[in-house]
Design a protein that fits this description.
Layout lengths: L1 E5 L9 H8 L5 H9 L3 E3 L2 E2 L11 E5 L19 E5 L3 E6 L16 H8 L23 E7 L2 H12 L4 E9 L6 E5 L2 E3 L7 E3 L8 E9 L3 E8 L6 H8 L29 E9 L6 E5 L4 H11 L4 E2 L3
Length: about 325
């Protein structure tokens, strides 16, 4: 698959590999780095190096070979330092760190949550195919937090049905740019793939799929706001797109954030979107009991929030 971008003023001086990794959620920076070395990336139709520093109006093109879901792709188990929040014979709950993708994509077949699952679990469901064993749902590469995996097809099918019927409740924590005046709100705007940039999503009143996000304010800072967000549908990049469309983009979001704000001091404390999947609630696929799991905030978001509080803050009672 081929992707094209144009560098603007905010990208001047940024390394090519970092620029591309920030825009291609399914790929790690090391994977992008290797593609550039393999002459799969061009700037102004010329081969270049991963460390090329972008200039304004540079035309960037990268070719990413598609990873086919077949048995010829060999996935290796990997002993990775991922935090397990809960585990039994049918499910495993993981606190995914930012920077790690959930399942293999394109030619990237190492360093994913799936590789860890293959190492740690004796069995995994196969309803999502050979390259997504156990995967019931996903998080963006640079979103941290709680994620469920299924060890068998019975558990997987049950969980998939719960997601389909909106029985799974997810709570995200995010720091957004701007001070939100109301204590709570609801965003009900359809989302579709962006026509001009296929790596992005956008509000689309014609042809878009229904997307609903509710939120409430936790703390107000001098320039920013800490919120809980509750996606009632599961569209790609939903919370990021919805908050940006309200004028409150998630801090550090290089895809949907406001370019003039991204160089301000708070963003320098976190090198990714300040979005964390904090809590998930559902019915256990075997016992049918209501269960809930919480992933503690990662250190980068703790540092960001502590820094925001230094200028004074208002905590909202909920």
């Amino acid at each position: 698959m081929e992707y094209k971008f144009i560098a603007d003023a905010q990208n001047v001086g940024e390394r090519l590999d970092k620029f591309l990794a920030n825009r291609l959620d399914m790929c790690s920076r090391s994977f992008i780095h290797n593609l550039i070395i393999d002459n799969q990336a061009y700037v102004n139709e010329k081969k270049t190096k991963p460390g090329y520093f972008l200039k304004i109006s540079d035309n960037i093109r990268i070719i990413i070979p598609k990873l086919q879901d077949n048995t010829e792709v060999k996935l290796e188990p990997e002993n990775m330092a991922l935090s397990i929040l809960y585990e039994d014979d049918s499910i495993i709950i993981i606190n995914k760190p930012a920077g790690i993708i959930v399942h293999p994509a394109q030619r990237m077949v190492t360093g994913t949550v799936v590789n860890f699952l293959l190492y740690h679990c004796k069995t995994l469901s196969n309803l999502n195919g050979h390259i997504r064993p156990g995967i019931v749902h996903r998080l963006d590469k640079d979103t941290s937090g709680v994620i469920i995996a299924a060890k068998d097809n019975i558990a997987h099918a049950n969980l998939a049905e719960q997601f389909k019927n909106r029985k799974v409740r997810k709570t995200y924590m995010a720091v957004v740019r701007g001070v939100i005046s109301q204590d709570e709100g609801e965003i009900n705007r359809p989302i579709a793939r962006c026509i001009s940039d296929r790596t992005k999503m956008a509000i689309a009143y014609v042809g878009g799929k229904r997307a609903l996000t509710k939120f409430n304010v936790l703390e107000r800072y001098h320039k920013d706001t800490l919120i809980n967000a509750y996606p009632r549908t599961g569209r790609t990049h939903q919370i990021r797109v919805h908050m940006a469309c309200l004028g409150y983009p998630i801090l550090g979001d290089k895809t949907y954030g406001k370019s003039k704000e991204l160089e301000s001091k708070p963003d320098s404390l976190i090198d990714r979107q300040a979005l964390h999947a904090y809590k998930i609630s559902f019915f256990h696929p075997i016992s049918s009991k209501a269960v809930e799991f919480i992933a503690p905030l990662p250190d980068d978001m703790k540092r960001l929030i502590d820094n925001e509080r230094k200028s004074g803050y208002e905590r909202i009672k909920i």
